[in-house]
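Technical note accompanying the year-one report. For the benefit of new consortium partners, we illustrate the data format agreed upon in the data management plan: each record pairs a sequence with a structure-token string. No post-processing was applied to the example shown here.
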Amino acid sequence: MRRVIGLVFFVGFTSLALAEEPAQTGGSGEGLEILKKSVAALKEAKTVSYKAEYSATGWVTKFVPTVTGTAVMGEQSKDKIDRFSCTVTIKANDSEEVKEFSAGSDGDNFFVIDPKTKMCHLDMDPAVLGGQGRNIQRVLLREFSALEPFEDVFKSGTVELVGTTKVGDEECDELKIVPTEGGKRLLAISRKDHLPRRATNLIKNEQGEATTVLTISDLVVNPTFVRSPFELRCPEGYKQTDEFAP
């Protein structure tokens, strides 16, 4: 069911942290230089594909599932809507049930394919993704599609190099980033291609400390496709509808 969109669509991580004190522009010079190299690499990467694993620690495991899958991300539309497609499995930490979905957006319409119901839901409203919409999108790293990655950080955030780390076989520099709004993050950036390989949200409030972690592997920059990966291809035998997924 089509609706006029009055909401700003967002993708990626949702911070559960309480508001931090306003960050001051700056940080370590080395950290800023690494982040600038990452921005340049991100702008050259018009499309990326990768495997993803999203998990949580601490008290947020009660609310945040483990999500694994594959994703393709492209440049945002003129309306700053992320172009993406992904196929994911979602498992709540207190359940053995595993849910599977494929979803995406071409910058105009959003879709989700539910193999359990054999339905393809397509609409201009992101709410068409249904009750699992936020969890589906946890495998997406917004910086891969942003027109100006880390723009708020460079305006009035802080960046600090905290050391080196390894993500899979990838040697990375790890930055601590405090944006203008939102919680603190650790970002592991490859020393080889300067693209992110892991993003960790640092969460701290009256319930204690916790994290959410998105780990990226098998990253391919500017892959080629016979057809756009961001458009719905409803499988044979499935029914297509503009009704929102449950």
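Partners are asked to follow this layout when depositing records. Residues 1-25 have pLDDT under 50 and may be disordered.
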